[in-house]
Design brief:
Two copies of one chain form a homodimer. Chain A has two domains: about 160 residues, NAD(P)-binding Rossmann-like Domain (Rossmann fold); about 120 residues, N-(1-d-carboxylethyl)-l-norvaline Dehydrogenase, domain 2, CATH 1.10.1040. In chain A, about 55% of the residues lie in helices and about 15% in strands. Chain A has 14 helices and nine strands. Chain A has a six-stranded parallel beta sheet with strand order 3-2-1-4-5-6, with helices on both faces. A three-stranded mixed beta sheet of chain A has the order 7-8-9. In chain A, strand 8, helix 8 and strand 9 form a beta-alpha-beta unit. In chain A, helix 4 runs parallel beside helix 6, helix 10 runs antiparallel to helix 11 and helix 12 runs antiparallel to helix 13. Chain A is elongated and about 65 Å long. At the A-B interface, strand 7, strand 8, strand 9, helix 9 and helix 10 of A face strand 7, strand 8, strand 9, helix 9 and helix 10 of B.
Chain lengths: ~290, ~290
């Protein structure tokens, strides 16, 4: 099976390399030529445009940043759709708005190209270790066709429902993660203000019902004041926009998500948007009664 | 070593039984005689008052509900202090206000009784399995004397600092736990509104960075609509009061804790205070934009 891969950033690069190592014939497209180098070294073929890549691919995987990036890569000039073979499959693993996913799936369907939304959780470390969880929306029969590919990238592949359902699940994941990060930041900040060592506090809390991967990973960086990303906070802010738009669509309000939104906006306004989410603790520490 | 145990509720009963089974000489005091029966059956001696119990104990453990309960049991008429032997040790494992703990430690110290605050996390299941995490405040040398007792009750014993530091750590634990529960409730409610099955969503989220014990345990009860406690929500509300008082003391505000406070207050006002914290999802589902 010929696989085309678009988006060779901190997530996409290790994912594409796993597919090369698994013996797949991998083609790539990269806006920045230097992003392609490690893949070309691993045997991938470089195409000049997404359309050219799609014309030689049975499956095209996209792993880019935002909704507009996926739209450009799939539907833009020289985009995937203009070159794609009828019957081929597009797997979008980016984190984008579910509504936009549904529109793109429709546009592709009219040209007999099938689409899955398959965003992931697990972060750069999960991409490197191929231990991602992949949340899939779309036709389960299409998922079955590409499951061997996804199994090279992740440990758990969960079919969530029709087109967009994978993106809804990812939005819920980001919501739970971000609110948990706010709670960990408030807890570590409160403890430190009352004289506790945040490292000891984190260790104690990991032994009980407050234990979480957020406490383990972001909590460690909060306690050590390590604010180098990881993932830049502005990417979480992008995801939170998707969450809040989903809430608006169904006439609901999410108050804890609203608190996080305010704090991420403050970080970005202060020029801290490229820091790790762990820097949220600095914003919490500044809050006066 | 003679151990006196006061507070034979959902947490205290299995803890006291562990001490009996470990071969300690255990005495008990119980306001309600029937609470004492399983302990007496396991070989514990029943005393008529906390003072009488203290007079025959090297170590007195208290595991009661709130600050006022600990004050009454320790400092009230026929309380522990009026019978305690000089040099004996009181370990308060209840979850109460750190300021009150410090005052009680001072009052006991004047009569040459030493005190530790040693609240726990792990819930009724952790108490049954003796896998609690115990957060200790007070003199580390006193902790060393009673460590073999605590090791019968928990897996991890963490010294947090001086008197009250164990209670501050517990408050931080409850803060992280409660905000996480709010985030899980918002995430599962949003997903369900958009057509996802909450059981499938929980399973997917457990595979990634949003994984937490709250998602695992409370998330399962939210997804299954199982609102029988567990711990009654009003006990978490009591703990949240301690958290917010600690924030006020240092002139800080905790916005996500404030969201949870509002929601728990609404639950209690609707007469749902004896339900499991998982019922928080019902309150979140009612929020309209």
């Amino acid at each position: 099976m010929n696989i085309g891969f678009i988006g060779l950033g901190v997530m996409g690069r290790p994912m594409a390399l796993h597919l090369c190592k698994a013996g797949h014939s991998v083609g790539i497209y990269a806006r920045r030529r230097e992003a392609a180098d490690p893949l070309v070294a691993a045997g991938a073929t470089l195409s000049a445009t997404p359309a050219a890549l799609a014309s030689t691919s049975d499956v095209v995987v996209t792993m880019v940043t935002a909704t507009a990036d996926v739209e450009e890569v799939l539907l833009g000039d020289d985009g995937v759709l203009s070159g794609a073979r009828p019957g081929s499959i597009v797997i979008d693993m980016s984190t984008i708005a579910p509504q936009a996913t549904r529109r793109m799936a429709d546009a592709l369907q009219r040209r007999h190209v099938r689409m899955l939304d398959a965003p992931v959780t697990g972060g750069p470390a999960g991409a490197e270790a191929a231990t991602l969880t992949i949340m899939v929306g779309g036709d389960p029969a299409v998922l079955d066709e590409v499951r061997p590919i996804l199994e090279r990238l992740g440990q758990q592949i969960v079919h969530m429902g029709g087109h967009g359902a994978g993106q809804v699940a990812k939005a819920c994941n980001q919501l739970a993660l971000l609110v948990n990060a706010e709670g960990v930041a408030e807890a570590l900040a409160l403890g430190e203000r009352h004289g506790l060592d945040p490292r000891t506090l984190r260790r104690a809390l990991l032994g009980g019902i407050a234990a979480s991967r957020v406490l383990e990973e972001f909590g460690a960086r909060m306690a050590e004041r390590q604010f180098e990303p990881g993932m830049a906070t502005r990417l979480y802010d992008k995801d939170l926009n998707i969450v809040l738009e989903l809430a608006r669509e169904v006439g609901r309000t999410l108050p804890a998500a609203g608190v996080v939104r305010k704090h991420l906006d403050e970080m970005i306004a202060r020029g801290e948007g490229s820091r790790d989410l762990a820097a949220l603790i600095q914003t919490v520490e500044r809050l006066e009664d």
